[in-house]
Amino acid sequence: MTRLIILFYGCFLLFSSCKQKPVFIDFTYPEGKYKALVLSYDDGTIQDIQLANLFDQHNLVGTFNLNSEYLGTKRGWPQQNGDTIFQKYVAKDSLLFIYKNHEIAAHGALHKNFIDITDKEILDEVNIDIKNLTELTDRKIISMAYPFGNTNDSIAKLISTTEIVNARTVDDTYKFDLPKNYLIWNPTCHDSKVLDYLNDYLILDKPKLSLFYVWGHSWEFEDQHRWNNMVEFCEKIGKANDIWSVGNGELTKYLKAIKKVQINEYKIVNPLNNELVWIKLSTGIKKLEAGETIEIKTIANKQTSKKNTDHEQGI
Ligand SMILES: [Zn+2]
């Protein structure tokens, strides 16, 4: 009889401990979101003031890629049709005002075309830009957009030796996938096409990390029709509370942090030196702090979990 009671009690303990442990479902973005938005704008011309303002009005975060050696100047850019476009760049001492709520990123100190210059010149373009922008803002500069969008595998490898952790091209994918290589980061689309993809993204409802990545130049919004489209885009996407509007650098750091989390059938360990990550458990959404370990009953769907972390493997 005593044995039976012990056996029953043991089974009860086992059952209740299993019941208390949650099932791991997925990694998510902050607050359990699966969708994200990056707005990446190049050159640092004065039209950024109006654009950053529009983002501010709708609580959207932009990533502004600046040519630091041109800040405060005016210069002409010869066009293929023989015209010259004159650009006026934002003042050096205004960066922390204009981009207060936004990420400041590199775009080459002098906007040289990386496929036409030597490795040393590429490194100078990047490192001088980082140095200038760091001195002007006291921020860490970790993102970049390639001047003219031009890059290749060997340039990306070279960039990986700098402090830059993500670098954007202009090769539109028209998809909402995360990149395979953060240093050859192909965006979803140029902002002239955002309204074509907006509704698809707003109604997207899949438990898989996705990204709507928009790029452009604020000086292109001199065209009123295109500006109006951007206003409409920001108004609508700014109301979506299931989309994480984020700078490219913060997003990259988050995705890298997910990769560092160790997970098996029994537990999830977020290493001590890692960032905070968010996970979805059978019991709900949970913040997993650096250094925190939780025991789990099992992994719900190994395929889904793998898919959610199945991005950047390379440099
Ligand atoms: Zn540019």
Structure report:
With 315 residues, the protein is an alpha/beta fold. The protein is built from nine helices and 17 strands. It has helices at residues 2-20, 48-57, 95-98, 119-137, 153-159, 194-203, 224-238, 248-260, 302-309, and strands at residues 23-28, 35-43, 62-66, 74-78, 84-88, 103-106, 143-145, 166-168, 189-190, 212-216, 243-245, 262-263, 267-269, 277-281, 284-288, 293-295, 298-299. Strands 2, 3, 6, 9, 10 and 11 form a six-stranded parallel beta sheet that branches. A four-stranded mixed beta sheet has the order 15-14-1-17. Strands 12-13-16 form a three-stranded antiparallel beta sheet, with no helix packed on it. A hairpin with a 2-residue loop joins strand 14 and strand 15 (284-288). Helix 6 runs parallel beside helix 7 (224-238). The structure holds zinc ion. Zinc ion is lined by residues 42-43, 107, 111, 147. The site of zinc ion has 5 residues, from strand 2. GO terms for molecular function: hydrolase activity, acting on carbon-nitrogen (but not peptide) bonds. Residues 33-162 form the NodB homology domain.
The CATH class designation of the domain at 36-249 is Alpha Beta
| CATH arch. level architecture of the domain at 36-249 | Alpha-Beta Barrel
What's the total count of β strands? 17
Spatial gap, N to C terminus: 64 Å
Which range does the strand content fall in?
15-25%
Derived from helix and strand composition plus strand pairing, the structural class reads alpha/beta
Biggest sheet descriptor: 6 strands, parallel
Helix proportion = 25-40%
> Which fold does the CATH topology of the domain at 36-249 refer to?
TIM Barrel
CATH superfamily of the domain at 36-249: Glycoside hydrolase/deacetylase
Task: Give the bound compounds.
Answer: zinc ion
Shape: globular
Distinct helical segment count: 9
Give the SSE string.
HEEHEEEHEHEHEEHEHEHEEEEEEH
Mean pLDDT, all residues: 92
**Rg from C-alpha positions?**
23 Å
Low-confidence stretches: none
